[in-house]
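Ligand: fe (ii) ion. Inputs:
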Amino acid sequence: MTETFTLAQLSDPHLTAVSGFAPRYWNSKRFLGYVNWRRTRRTVHRIEIADRLAADARMLRVDHIAVTGDLVNLGLPAEHDAALAWLHSVGPPEHVTVIPGNHDIYSMMRGDRGIARWASYMGGEEETLAFPFVRRAGPLALVGMNSAEETPPFVAAGKLGPDQLQVAGDLLVRLGEEGVIRVVLIHHPPLSGLAPPRRALTDTAHFVRMVERSGAELVLYGHNHVPALHWIDAPNGPIPVVGAASASASRPIGDEPLAQYNVFTFFRHGNRLRIRQTIRGLETPDGPVVRLSERVLDCGG
Ligand SMILES: [Fe+2]
Ligand SMILES: [Fe+2]
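Predicted complex:
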C-alpha cells in the first residue's frame, strides 16, 4: 500500500422520529421502548447532528464510511425507510457500508423485509442478504457481521451464533492470505466485560477465539455510545478493537459524550501496518465539528 486510505465510522445515530405507530406492530417491547424514547432519547439523538458529522466526513473526502448499527429506535418499517433515505444522504452504496444494531432488529416484523431495505449498503441484494458479508473498499475488506436478534423487553443483548462465526473465520483466513486489510464491523462490544449481561454479546469468547485464530487488522463496534479502545492479543500481533460514540448525541448523557465519529487512516510504516485514529465531533452542542483527539494504533504485521 503506497497511498493512504481513510475509513470513517459513524455509529448509533438512532435517527428517526417515531410516528405512525401501526397497531399491527404494537407489542410490549415497542411500548416500553417508546416510553423510554419519549422520556430521554428523543431529546438526545438529533438527526441534524448526525447530518453535520456525515457532512464533515464528506468534506474530509474520506474514502469510505461504515455505519455500525442502531440507525433507528423501534425497528419499525417506516423507520427502516427513513434510515434508507438517510443512508442515501450520507453517500451512495459504493462509499457507505452499514451493519444492523439491536434497535434495527428490535421486535416482531410480521413478515416485513426490515433491514433488507438496506441490502445495497451491505453489499448485496435483498433476496440474498446474509451475514457475514464482505465488501471491498480500496485496500480494505470490510467484514460485516450481524450481532442483533429480536429480544424481550429490557433486553438489548446480542448473539452471532456458531454458523456466522464459522463463515467469518473462514473468510478472514482467506482474506488474510490475499494480504488485504481486514476490518470487522459488529454492533455489540465483542469483548467480555464491556457491557452488562442484559446488553452484552453472549458469545464474546467465541468471537475472540475466532479472531485470534483467523486474524483481522481492526474491529469496530458501537452500542455503548462510548469511545473506547481495547486489544485482542492474537498470535500474529495485537488487534485493536475500537468502540464509537453516538454520531447524533446533542448532549452528554451519563458517560456518553456529545456526538463523535472516528476517522481511520491506514498506512505502512516500514513493513508494519499503522492505523491513525482521529476522533472528530462536537465540543459544544452548537459548535463546529472539530478534531477531538488523535493516536496511532500499531497493529504489528
Ligand atoms: Fe445505540
Ligand atoms: Fe445498540
